[in-house]
Amino acid sequence: MKRVAANFGKVFPPLTAADGRNSKVRLGKVGQKLNLTVLGMYGLDGVTGHVTVFERTKTGFSFRAESDHPDYPGVIGFNFVVEENVAYLDVVGISAAQPPGGLGQDNYEIVARSLWYAFARNVEGQIL
Which superkingdom is the protein from (predicted)? Predict the structure, then answer.
């Protein structure tokens, strides 16, 4: 988890940028605010919003969506689990917000799963 936190701007899809401007962002302590962007997908414009780190553990972290984030009010947690030399990313989130841009819940979940799959692939090899 230390290597993931140290390279957070390079591995966390809502922070990564083609121009590398976020490449030095680290996942910090509880209370850190991050401005996240999901680039346009599925015909939607890019979506931005802030989250606050509200939990850090040896194996993961959790964010609270701020009022400008499309998942406000909501929280999401990421936990890396290692079993028999296989690492898994467990993502659990909850929000009372409607999906942005009229995307619909099913399509929004597809977008979210693709982001977290990319995150898991980006950190592959850093967890084990």
Answer: Bacteria
